[in-house]
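Deliverable D4.2, example record:
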Amino acid sequence: MFFREVKNDTYFDYYTIEKGDNLYKIGKDYNINPNLLASLNGLDSNDYIYPGQVLLVPNRNYSYYITKSGDTLSSVADTFNISVDKMIHDNKVVYLLEGQMLVKKKN
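Output generated by the structure prediction step:
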């Protein structure tokens, strides 16, 4: 497996789209669900991506969750299998507004 033109950040790698890429292929290369990849980038899974476009690709050292209506601190912490205190510690701000991305550092 190889990765092209990736720049590192704390939670994300930045991936520059090349001709022939699609969300499914990038998701497979990075072991991430293409729908989550789309969501993290403000895209619909059916949106067109184009060469030169830069996508955020999750860093392999973190787990990610996009909040939805009805989520609670407890339900999200349970999804991550961590305590509420740990979840709050791992995230600078937790509003639980729909569409907020929360992270958990993998052990």
